[in-house]
Amino acid sequence: MIEFKHITKTYGDTDVIKDLNLTINSGELFVLVGPSGSGKTTSVKMINQLIQQTSGDIEIDGQNVQTTDLRQLRLGMGYVLQNIALFPNLTIQENIGIQLEELKVPKEKRVARARDLLTQVGLDPDSYAGRMPDELSGGEQQRIGIIRALATNPNIILMDEAFSALDPLSRKQLQDIVLDLHAKATNNLTIVFVTHDMREALRLGSRIAVLQDGVIQQVGTQEEILNNPANAFVANFFKNEQETQTATVGKVIIQGYGHRVTTTDTPKMAFETELSDAVRTLRQQPAISVAYHDAWYQLKLADVLDFIENKEEALD
Amino acid sequence: MTDLLRVLRTQHQDILSALGQHLSISLISLLIAAVIAIPLAIYLRRYRRVAGVVLQITGVMQTIPSLALLGFLIPFVGIGTLPAIIALVVYAVMPIFQNTYTGFTTIDPSLEEAASAFGLSRFHRLTRIELPLAMPLIVSGLRIAMVMIIGTATLAALIGAGGLGTYILLGIQNNDNSLLLIGAILSAVLALIFSALIQWLGKLSFRKIIYIFAAILVLFAGWGAYAVISRPAPTITIAGKLGSEPEILINMYKDLIQQDHPRQKVVLKRNFGTTTFLYKALKAGQIDIYPEFTGTVMESLVKVKNYGHDPQKIYRQGKTLLKQQDNLDYLSPMHYQNGYALVVSKAFAKKYHLKTIDDLKAVQNKVKAGFDLDFYQQKDGYPGVRKAYNLKFGKVSSMQSSLRYKAIASGEVNLVDGYTTDPQIQKYHLVALKDNRKFFPPYQGAPLVRNKTLKQHPGLKRSLNKLKGKITDKDMQKMNYQVTFQHQKAATVARNYLIKHGLLVK
After folding, report:
1. Tell me: the pLDDT tens digits for A15-30?
2. Which residues of B touch A76 (CB under 8 A)?
3. CB contact under 8 A, A89 and B116
4. I need a surface site. Which of B156, B229, B274, B388 has the fewest CB within 10 A?
5. Are residues B73 and B176 in the same domain?
6. For residues A257, A259, A264 and A265, what is the CA-based torsion angle, rounded to 10 degrees?
7. Domain topology for A2-241
8. Measured between alpha carbons, how far is B484 from B253 in angstroms, rounded to an integer?
9. A242-256, B296-310, B318-332, B485-499: which has the minimum mean pLDDT?
10. Is A36 exposed, middle or buried (CB count within 10 Å of its CB: 0-12, 13-18, 19+)?
11. Smallest CA–CA separation between A94 and chain B, in Å?
């Protein structure tokens, strides 16, 4: 259990966090969501004391983090960063084992643990363990980032905008991995996940806290937040998700469907094209291409159908 | 080319020892600079402002001309290896510090964040993450420093630290390209080899680098300890200026001393630099003896003006003043005079029956003279001699001192200035005309000795004075020729002379 008790944080004259009170239960996949500058990253970094609060206490299972030995505190916690931050001078398996190395775990055990974790996220240890980080794609690198945080079998993992820099497809895959690892964990694993993306929040969070300007607006489950928003800000923030009309190809891609391609020979369609127009074209063509974030994404009819199917489920 | 090979054949041992000196001076300097700069940069990586100040200071040190720095150090640490190493360290600190600092401060901050978030200890973070990431830049800093050190170390020869610079200076002085090439090529090769070696070192793991570093340190410490322990009981140190003539003389001193006192240890420091360096070293007791000319004593050491032209009087005046000024003993001079001379080709002299400078008067219209820049301008050079002998040459041009012998050999000019014992006189079949009106100031060589040394070693004076009145201009010229152009060993040439003239018993 992680408890924030009357936490404030001030940088110069600005209050970044104002009297934050929050309890994160053991075993939760807890999401902190909010627009940029809302104080969510600051809050999560206080848990492992990368940032110190101006006042108030943070307790983990009743133990104040500020009186806990810093090294002990951090070694007992996993951490996943937005820029992944794999150490470029270490191999994949050395990266995964870095905390174990600090704990003086013998090399054979570190290697075995790294190989086990690689298998769990669908990467073949024989071909990945000895490689250097820059030989991997962004999505693959962040998988390593996640299992690196799992290496010591910690009770708490902090993830700070972990997937924000990735393309929609990798993002969706990694979200699945996080859900899967959390479900499979046998040690009552608590994950604190920070994101600015409300879809990601809804997808992952067993409970979600919505932050704005350093103040918690609402804490609740997916349903509570979508159906009973505490105030106009929360309602507005999640409004887009509730709007079901006028689905566009852009939405399909943002949700993680389709494939990123380097060259395209299929018909190009604008991001705002309505889904009905896209389906019409797809009856004649094998695929269409849509520009998104300086890259091309290819959609097939099957992708659109998957999107509609999942959307129906979400509405049920 | 054949010259080069001959030098290599006859002097390979000296060259090797110069190479060794160069190498050890450079390596020690690099090691000290690295030991200072790397930990300092690592420590200051979190104090940007202080690091900025340090960077400024090291930058300023870098801009001090190396000769000025060496000169500045002499009053504090004397001459020889120590000031050379200090100067080199001063130069090498900046590139190593700057690169190490840049290497550490340009590490991606998110990697630093990750490392601290994982709870890595300071040491673990430094050795496992930061140092390896900064290593490429540190290594390139070391390479820059090493190449610079090896290049600058050639100047160490000027203050008696030896090394490859000795050959470069000798080459310039004697206009001998083979010596120049040996010095320049070897230092370039040394720089290349070490640059490659350091790069290779940078690719090794951190642990191996530490091992190699430690091994080198232990090696040097051992060598230093050995040098201290094995330092022999009181020795006499004899030094000589740059060039063949001083080297021949100091070898003679050594032979003469050891003939009388076979157990006496004598250390020779050849090519020890210029007048000022030697004189300071003598006063400081770093050397005991060096041969000096009476003219130089008057001009540069006791600074007397208008000292006349009488060799005896000048010697006596110099001797008295040196004794008063610095308690140094100026022993009896040898016969030869290494002074200015007007030099013509043998053929020219024969054709017009030239023996003295006065004889030039008759052919002055036919004279095409080439003079060294200094000689052309100085009062005791061409302007003076022209007045004293009332001469008016057909054509006079000034040229670089190293070129004038070539000019007379090729017939471009038919009269040049020179020194009476220059080996080129023999080499190019020239003759020095007699200064029959005794215009040129006399330059007689004699041993200059510390009074303390004379007291510690009774009999030393007697041994050295055996050269009193010995060695003619011709003899010296011939010996210089043997060393400079035939590349014989100075020690051999010196010994042969002493034996031939009965001063040394085989």
Report:
1. 899 899 999 999 999 9
2. 119
3. no
4. B229
5. yes
6. -70
7. Rossmann fold (3.40.50)
8. 20
9. A242-256
10. exposed
11. 10
